[in-house]
Design brief:
Layout lengths: L1 E4 L5 E4 L10 E4 L2 H11 L3 H7 L4 E4 L5 E4 L1 H7 L11 H4 L21 H12 L3 E12 L2 E14 L2 E13 L9
Parallel strand pairs: 1-3
Antiparallel strand pairs: 1-2, 4-5, 4-8, 6-7, 7-8
């Protein structure tokens, strides 16, 4: 799928799309237009993110969340102090993020689709669309699996992590492995 800047029309490359393999055009915003749009409007970053109308987290190169849109805070049922400065696994309450070492630093983290997707976008600049991600949550002895579809896009020195879908799969069967 071809990507173009919705403001200036600049070619932003292509992104693979299982959903739309027929060469449709999708729109993003180039780094220059994003900068000028925010500067001209005098719009704070969080207000800009809120205006996108989708749940999105802003991730820095160290893998920490810098801020979150209103829609992301709503879907996560968290306020900014529970999101800003934390790693995605901590915000999504991944059971592995609670292990010694924390999010991104346990043996389980190498298979994390969220971590791999965000890292790849940082390293290659390649956007990803509707990547399936699963994580195990354990709270008060109850186990559940969080199923996500995420998309990423690099803008300047940060990655926008969009939550396309998020649902909880309750009560896995005893002995059932939750990735």
């Amino acid at each position: 799928m071809k990507r173009v800047c919705a403001w200036c029309g600049k070619d932003l490359g292509t992104v693979p799309s299982v959903v739309h393999p027929d060469g449709l055009i999708t729109h993003g915003i180039c780094k220059e237009c994003a900068f000028h749009l925010r500067a001209q409007a005098g719009m704070p970053l969080r207000a800009f993110l809120d205006g996108l109308g989708v749940p999105v987290l802003l991730v820095d190169p160290e893998g920490n969340i810098k801020t979150a849109s209103r829609d992301a805070r709503k879907i996560l049922s968290k306020d900014l102090p529970e999101i800003e400065g934390y790693r995605p696994g901590e915000v999504f309450e991944c059971a592995n993020a609670m292990l010694p070492g924390g999010c991104g630093k346990t043996s389980h983290c190498s298979g994390c689709a969220i971590r791999r997707t965000v890292t790849d976008t940082f390293e290659t600049g390649k956007s990803h669309e509707k990547v399936k991600a699963y994580l195990k949550q354990e709270t008060g002895g109850a186990r559940q699996r969080l199923s996500l579809l995420i998309s990423t896009e690099k803008v300047g020195e940060v990655v926008l992590l969009r939550i396309d879908e998020m649902r909880v799969e309750d009560n896995p069967q005893p002995g059932e492995e939750i990735p």
